[in-house]
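Q: Structure tokens for this one, please.
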Amino acid sequence: MSFPMDDSRPIFVQIAERVENDILEGILPEESQVPSINQFAAFYQINPATALKGINLLVDQGILYKKRGIGMFVATGVREIIVSKRKEQFYEQYVVSMVKEAHKLGITAEQLTDMIKRGAKEQ
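A: Here is the predicted structure, written as tokens:
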């Protein structure tokens, strides 16, 4: 459950994304318990309130739910919710800006498609 922290983004957002990544990768399956707020705080050496803020983001989105006195758990069916959300973020963050830049450079849709295919082959 480790990943380098990114100083350009709030820590609580990064914690929420890490939990989402663990769900997507199957590390945290549906109905499994997530680490406690204190475990997150100790692991990342942050204030427990910061860890709680990240976890509460996921609770507000219905990705995690609380079992009183036990802890936080991954809700059923959330993998699809996370994938859908991440696809929309990908579109907004990468595709829109890429198309705008291509337009500025006079790159046609066909040329852009060819570039993407070439990039995919190199992976």
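A few notes: The beta strands are 64-67, 71-74. The chain has a mean pLDDT of 92.
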